[in-house]
Amino acid sequence: MDLALPTKGLEKYHSGSQIARVATEAWAAKNLFCVGCQSSRLRAFRAGTKARDYFCPNCDVPVQLKSQSRPFGRRIVDSAYESMMAAIASDHAPHFVLLHYTRETWSVVDLTFIPNFAIPESAIEKRKPLSPTAERANWVGCNVLLCQVPIDARIPIVENGRIVSRELVRRALRRIRPLAELKSEQRGWTLDVLTAVRQLERSDFLLGDVYAKETELSRLHPSNRHVRDKIRQQLQVLRDKGLLEFLGGGRYRLVD
What is the model's pTM? Predict the structure, then answer.
């Protein structure tokens, strides 16, 4: 993987955003690979394809590229709210690749892969509708809240300018891939409980520690009146999927 963005021919563009788009898309076309299989290249969709930039020629999974010259923060701007919610519910959301580059040297600083099955509905934030006088009057977009995507699913490919080996990247995906076996309506709860566990910032924890997240989980799932029962159930799911170890007596340990 070459971390230098291609700059040849960029002098003919005058818009900063257009220069960045051309450079990052050209880099991605040459350097992105499929994390889910052994394909060394991704192919580009036709220009103008909504919410889809690349796809794997082997497993045919779509990938959406998000690029910016500053580190990614709490949220990333995405497409139409209703379309994204429907894509998650039907398991047709794309994988995300987050590309953070620097304009000083035109090189990649960070590259993060987020699998489509690891984005819960709780991570989708509805934006305000566009004004009635806008070109797309009353259109409603969304943001993806990265803090609601479990850190297990934010898989680094490049980290602080250091390339992570493809085997390690693919191994990280294999670790959480069992979650893709869950139905989408169940998976949201599982991902939210995993996020709550990760927020404890320790590998060993007690059931009561996760109960302390009850208010937050109730806010994410207001229709559920038995949150503690659901927490216990999802801890069992995470155990069965190999992400947690049950130590007995209400004690758990993350499997890393």
Answer: 0.93
